[in-house]
Specification:
With about 400 residues, the protein is an alpha+beta fold. It contains ten helices and 17 strands. Helix content is about 35%, strand content about 25%.
């Protein structure tokens, strides 16, 4: 059982129009009016104010007209009398026959996606046309006398002609070539190479399809075979000579079974050293939009340089000034406190409260006191006799 290839959502449409390529890389963006102003209208996969930046992955230009097609030969036996003029495909009789056959085949062959064209490549003599059934019906309506007369004449012909078979009309054995376009899709290429022949056999084996051709020629038609030559495109890699990336520094690579153009930013992910956004300029190549703020700023072709911004220096000098101001306030407070303490000390000294040498142990004028001990006491200053101390 064959499987039809119906996934057309991932297949590129066949286009050889050069205008689409030119508009794709046009340096002048179209504009659309919006409220009195104009905004750029960029082509697909391009963006930016000047339409000069491309996506990381873009669709390549494929020269479908140069890609070899997938071919399949279809042979039909058409039960009409073969004419000598059919030996020359350029004769009027051949041209009329070919036009009629091509019209019928195109409808059937187009059931397979990406059909391009069908060409009748050969007209040969086919099998002997069997008209016995038609003759039986006509003989049944004739009188017996006429039947006997025709029998005698037929017998006479058999006796006089050496080879009756050679004189009987033969059908037309028509061989046509259907061609299909390979797409930028690995699955579709594999399907055409492996499944096309079986799909065409299925189509031409359907009675309704053969009946359409029979009605066009007013004769019975037999489907003989479908044969396919060795394909010239074996895999997606064989499409490389027909792939072109129109943007500067884009390279063609097979990604997810398709040829795609890879931008320079995607090929070198750390192009801007992690300090900026890499942009694919379609005219120049990779460019960096470096990160910048009021505090810090990166610069250079690849954002490899760094410098502090004005906000950083403002914060730095502001912090230093605040620290100096705070230090000055603390110094002033310490000085004032120290001055206050020093004033209190001086006042105590001036009143004699802290004259240890004279006043603190001066008991003069205190009178005599009898503490209950024998003897008398005289008030006088205490003076230790150091010479009596045994050192």
């Amino acid at each position: 059982m064959t499987t039809r290839f119906t996934d057309t959502t991932q297949i590129d449409s066949v286009s050889t129009d050069s205008d689409s390529t030119e508009s794709k890389i046009s340096s002048k963006p179209q504009t659309t009016a919006t409220g009195g102003s104009t905004t750029p209208y960029c082509q697909e996969e391009i963006y930016g104010d000047d339409c000069n930046y491309g996506q990381n992955l873009t669709t390549p230009d494929v020269d479908y007209s140069a890609i070899p097609t997938r071919k399949a030969n279809i042979t039909l036996d058409i039960k009409i009398t073969f004419l000598d003029a059919y030996n020359d495909l350029l004769s009027n009789a051949s041209i009329d026959f070919i036009k009629k056959l091509q019209m019928e085949l195109e409808v059937l062959c187009a059931e397979v996606p990406h059909f391009q064209k069908v060409v009748v490549i050969n007209l040969l003599e086919g099998s002997v046309i069997d008209s016995s059934r038609r003759k039986e019906r006509s003989l049944q309506s004739e009188p017996k006398f006429q039947l006997f007369k025709k029998f005698i004449m037929k017998l006479k012909d058999l006796l006089t002609k050496a080879d009756v078979t050679e004189l009987r009309p033969r059908s037309v054995l028509a061989t046509s070539r259907a061609e299909y376009v390979y797409q930028n899709n690995a699955t579709q290429i594999q399907w055409l190479n492996d499944q096309l022949e079986g799909e065409l056999v299925r189509i031409f084996n359907e009675d309704d399809n053969i009946q359409q051709i029979s009605e066009a020629f007013s004769a019975s038609v037999l489907f003989k075979k479908v044969s396919s030559p060795v394909p010239q495109i074996m895999s997606i890699m064989d499409l490389q000579p027909f792939i072109n990336c129109s943007f500067n520094n884009y390279t063609a690579e097979v990604i997810d079974g398709r040829w795609q153009c890879v931008g320079p930013c995607m090929k070198e992910l750390d192009y801007c050293n992690g300090h900026g956004q890499c942009l694919n300029d379609i005219n120049v190549g990779a460019v960096c939009n470096c990160y910048s703020s009021k505090i810090s700023k990166y610069f250079g072709p690849r954002c490899q340089h760094f410098r502090w911004g004005p906000a950083f220096y403002g914060a730095l000098f502001g912090s230093i000034a605040a620290a100096l101001l705070m230090a000055a306030v603390v110094a002033i407070v310490v000085f004032l406190v120290k001055q206050r303490r020093c004033g209190s000390w001086n006042r105590a000294v001036s009143t004699g409260f802290l004259d240890f040498d004279e006043d603190y142990f001066d008991f003069t004028g205190t009178g005599r006191y009898n503490l209950g001990l024998a003897g008398s006491y005289t008030a006088e200053r205490f003076r230790p006799y150091l010479e009596n101390i045994d050192t």
